[in-house]
Design brief:
Blueprint lengths: L1 E10 L4 E8 L4 E7 L3 E5 L2 H8 L8 E9 L9 E8 L5 H11 L6 E3 L5 H9 L6 E6 L4 E5 L15 E8 L12 E8 L2 E5 L4 H15 L3 E4 L2 H15 L22 E6 L2 E6 L8 E4 L5 H17 L3 H6 L2 H15 L17 H7 L5 E2 L4 E3 L2 E6 L2 H8 L33 H22 L3 H25 L9 H24 L3 E6 L2 E5 L5 H15 L3 E14 L7 E10 L4 E4 L10 H14 L5 H6 L1 H16 L10 E4 L12 H11 L9 E6 L11 E3 L11 H15 L7 H9 L10
Parallel strand pairs: 10-13, 13-16
Antiparallel strand pairs: 1-2, 1-8, 2-3, 4-6, 4-7, 5-6, 8-9, 10-11, 11-12, 14-15, 17-20, 18-22, 19-21, 19-22, 20-21, 22-23, 23-24, 25-26, 26-27
Helix pairs in contact: 6-8, 6-12, 8-11, 8-12, 10-11, 10-13, 11-12, 13-14, 15-17, 15-19, 17-19, 17-20, 19-20
Length: about 750
């Protein structure tokens, strides 16, 4: 009997998976279990029976038979479907294509064919990564006794050994490439730091292998491991004829040589590039440059996502949040005997022009009142859209269901019915996440232990991103349990909840100054904290979704549009709360493409303004904010700003050659490509403005990697950015870039063009 935590699962030999366990005594144990994946075929009964008759001599099939399953998410009764058990999961794609070809791509539907081997194994055994289990290692299979639960919030996990791997190249040109020899390899784990600096490159690579084996980490942490570091090491190992001995996994599986690749994808209006994962076996490779969860919530959040969504750690680190959430939905579907479709098959219901007009309107907003305000309190619905989805049973199979035409649950505006006889897959999965996050937030606020407070906060942040994503994913074209009608339903329920909340606030003497989707900024001069809490209790009881009092502001500024100064921008504001916290949204200090120099200047300006205790005092602090601009202007003119603080990062939405205009990021990308670097759509490019108005576009900027000594920044361009950031911050008082510049230039100063 072995008792411990599941670290890694992956396909081994034919019909087998390898399972790595961290035992309670600290041992790392490799076990083997039998696993043969199942796929399902639905269609007309005579057709699937004829199909089955062809399987008797098929060497890829372990066994086949018939089973009762819900063939489609919308089915109310189970159907007789063909269940096929394959010997080798690697043949799944080929076998699926063959069945579709036999049926002329019209007779048969294939189900559960997209599950990865590790997910299929975990789902079939009702397990999840880092679950505490007791295992009996029997002759033909492993028998698990689960000592843990996905719903657990006070779970224990083993102490993971985390190694950080860094490699420096002895680059010969301006841009490092695979032909450059290895300069130095650095390994750090706990208190141990080892540097490999060998004149013999092959010897250095083998020392790396030996040290990894000796230190035996569970996690190897890299920066750029997927896109560059591991492909580079593999290339150098190949060049030195030691690739067959280049083993960093616990399993004796060497790396294979293949050209580095990746894919560009489009999500939420933005292009992203993801390098192909470099997989280790028995260890977890996490690339800091190729993970969203780790950057947002550290290892505590990554473990929470892996456990809750039942996704292996190495995959959870790289997955989009939507993909992790899909894994949770797939598990729920299998548990409910619902087959997972190969392609989304639920169409949007037909709508008249009027129905489209009233139904497809998104969230509700109250236009902000431009200017500085005091006596403002903020209330915010907690996980509003996910809670509405869970509370109102919104899922692909429940909206416009055929079994409940007279359902009392109706979608506002559209009047569509929602099922009352069964709970949908989407709300089932969301309820777990919503409840866990609320509990983590509660425990974070109650506990006095700093470490526990941090753990609970990281876990709730990780779950927050699932809840943030779930609404958009509901309407995503490839979401297998998504539905456009459900997406519209959530918006309709959300609009109704926000309008009712605003009406309740006004009925209690509050004035709505701004509102956006799930938040309200309310004004009542003599309101106490208790008044806000009483109001929140009333709205919570009415909406069925918790609304929280976020705090009261000493002052808050809602900024105007740059093109229409009398019109407010929904999500551009900053303010000082009574607890001293400064809340900032939508301005330069929050933008990813803002250079550090501008961030520092604007942060210091906000700090100067935060000395005001109300809106009236705020106006009196503007001269102090302008003094900050003057200070940073002088630093720039005196060349006291480091070049690194002037670097700008811009995102490439498409491949550089597909741009029609030579915008700054394209010029920088072309410079990098000329030096031999690979630049893809979805990459970010760093550059310095050197001569922003130069007629020769290649001289306007310089890619950060190509900056040499003697290259100077375009001072005028950075001054303009400084003035624009200050004008944006002070636009509530009527300031523009010119009016920011005028008070600070001094009487005898040259014009802006001459500094």
């Amino acid at each position: 009997m072995i008792r411990g935590w599941i670290l890694d699962v992956y396909a081994a030999d034919l019909g087998e998976v390898a399972v790595w366990i961290i035992s309670e005594s600290g041992q790392r144990i490799r076990l083997i279990d039998r696993f043969e994946p199942k796929i399902y075929v639905s269609g007309k009964q005579d057709e699937i029976e004829r199909l089955a008759s062809r399987f008797y001599n098929n060497q890829d099939i372990a066994k086949w038979g018939f089973a009762q399953k819900y063939a489609h998410p919308t089915d109310t009764q189970k159907s007789r479907v063909l269940e096929i058990t394959l010997k080798d999961y690697r043949k799944t794609s080929h076998f699926t294509r063959e069945i579709l070809r036999i049926g002329d791509y019209a007779k048969f539907e294939i189900h559960n064919c997209d599950l990865h081997c590790d997910r299929g194994y975990l789902f079939s055994k009702d397990l999840f990564p880092l679950a505490l289990v007791e295992i009996k290692n029997q002759a033909t299979e492993l028998t698990y006794t689960l000592q843990d639960s996905v719903a657990s919030i006070d779970y224990a996990v083993p102490s993971l050994r985390i190694m950080k791997l860094q490699v420096k190249t002895a680059k010969k040109g301006k841009i490092a490439n695979f032909e450059d020899p290895i300069g130095e390899i650095t390994l750090s784990q706990e208190e141990k730091l080892v540097t490999i600096d060998s004149s013999d490159e092959a010897d250095g690579l083998l020392k790396l292998v030996d040290l990894v084996c000796e230190l035996d980490p569970d996690v190897i942490l890299t920066h750029g491991g997927d896109s560059y570091l591991f492909p580079y090491l593999i290339y150098r190992a190949t060049a030195n004829k030691v690739l067959d001995r280049m083993i960093l996994s616990r399993d004796p599986i060497p790396f294979s040589f293949k050209a580095p690749s990746g894919n560009t994808f489009f999500s939420y209006g933005r292009s992203f590039y993801r390098a192909t994962a470099q997989r280790l076996y028995g260890r977890i490779h996490v690339d800091e440059a190729n993970t969203f969860v780790l950057s947002e919530a550290d290892f505590d959040g990554l473990i929470e996502i892996a456990r809750t969504c039942r996704v292996p750690l190495h995959t959870a680190a790289r997955n989009s949040i939507g993909s992790s959430m899909s894994s949770l939905q797939f598990y729920q579907a299998i548990k409910d005997d619902v087959l997972i479709p190969r392609n989304k098959s639920i169409p949007e219901a037909f709508k008249s022009a009027y129905q489209l007009l009233v139904g497809d309107r998104g969230g509700f907003v109250f236009e902000p009142r431009v200017g500085a305000h005091d006596h403002i309190g903020e209330v915010d619905f907690s996980s509003m859209y996910p809670s509405l989805m869970a509370n109102n049973n919104i899922s692909a199979e429940t909206v416009l269901c055929k079994c409940c035409p007279d359902s009392p649950i109706r979608i506002p505006d559209l009047g569509y019915n929602i099922c009352t006889k069964r709970k949908g897959i989407v709300p089932k999965t969301l309820r777990l996440v919503v409840d866990k996050r609320l509990f983590y937030k509660k425990m974070r606020d109650l506990t006095q232990d700093p470490r526990l407070k941090e753990v609970y906060d990281k876990r709730q942040i990780a779950l927050k991103w699932i809840l943030v994503t779930c609404f958009g994913y509901l309407g995503y074209k490839n979401a297998k349990f998504g539905t456009v009608d459900g997406h519209m339903a959530v918006c309709a329920f959300g609009r109704e909840a926000l309008l009712n909340a605003a009406s309740t606030a006004e009925a209690n003497g509050f004035e709505v100054i701004h509102g956006i989707v799930d938040s309200l900024w309310l004004k009542k001069t003599d309101a106490t904290i208790e008044d806000y809490k009483v109001l929140c209790d009333k709205i919570t009881a009415q909406a069925g979704v918790p609304i929280n009092f976020e705090g009261r502001y000493k002052w808050i500024v809602f900024l105007p549009s740059k093109t229409h100064p009398r019109i407010g921008v929904l999500n551009r504001y900053y303010g000082l709360m009574e607890n001293g916290k400064v809340k900032v949204r939508g301005i330069e200090v929050r933008r990813r493409d803002t250079p550090q120099f501008i961030i520092d200047a604007q942060t210091e300006m906000i700090k100067a303004l935060s000395e005001a205790n109300n809106a009236t005092e705020l106006y009196l602090k503007i001269p102090q904010a302008l003094d900050v601009v003057k200070k940073y202007r002088r630093k720039l003119l005196d060349q006291e700003v480091p070049i690194c603080d002037l670097i700008i990062t811009k995102h490439l939405s498409k491949n550089p050659k597909h741009y029609r205009q030579h915008v700054s990021q394209v010029i920088a990308a072309e410079q990098l490509i000329k030096e031999g670097a690979e630049v893809h759509a979805g990459n970010s490019v760093k550059f310095l403005f050197t001569s922003a108005e130069n007629k020769r576009h290649e001289r306007r900027v310089k890619a950060a990697q190509l900056i040499d000594e003697g290259i100077n920044p375009d001072t005028k361009k950075y001054l303009l950015l400084l003035y624009a950031s200050a004008a944006n911050l002070l636009s509530f008082a009527g300031y523009t870039s010119k009016s920011v510049y005028e008070p600070i230039k001094g009487q005898n100063q040259k014009s802006l063009l001459g500094y």
